[in-house]
Design brief:
By secondary structure, this protein is mainly β. The protein is built from no helices and 11 strands. The strands form 2 sheets. Strands 2, 4, 5, 6, 9, 10 and 11 form a 7-stranded mixed β-sheet that branches. Strands 1-3-8-7 form a 4-stranded antiparallel β-sheet, with no helix packed on it.
Length: 116
């Protein structure tokens, strides 16, 4: 079955960087668009960024453009989220997501806390 497992979250000071990873299994990873979402306390889950399967084009939420980068390694079935210049408002649980055969699949999430 489809599994998405995030890792790499933690506590980081404002202005620092963090890289999240999402290891995928149970489907042909290279054929599917992969996305990162986040959900802060009391807020709705929002799209952070995504990368397509074909030309690896990316798009991002306005709030993270220029600071965050989504990439993928199809040989490792892994998608990454590089987060630079982190701000306190980036504090959230970050989720990996894909849509496979009309079904939504989410990872368990990884907590990112940006605080001094």
């Amino acid at each position: 079955q489809v599994q998405l497992v995030e890792s790499g979250g933690g506590l980081v000071q404002p202005g620092r960087s963090l890289r999240l990873s999402c290891a995928a299994s149970g489907f042909t990873f290279r054929l599917y668009t992969m996305s990162w979402y986040r959900q802060a306390p009391g807020k709705e889950r929002e799209l952070v960024g995504r990368i397509t399967n074909t030309n690896r084009s990316t798009d991002y939420a306005d709030s993270v453009k220029g600071r965050f980068t989504v990439s993928r390694d199809n040989a490792k079935n892994t998608v990454y989220l590089q987060m630079n210049s982190l701000k306190p408002e980036d504090t959230a649980v970050y989720f990996c997501y894909t849509r496979y055969y009309s079904n939504d699949y989410w990872g368990q999430g990884t907590q990112v806390t940006v605080s001094s």
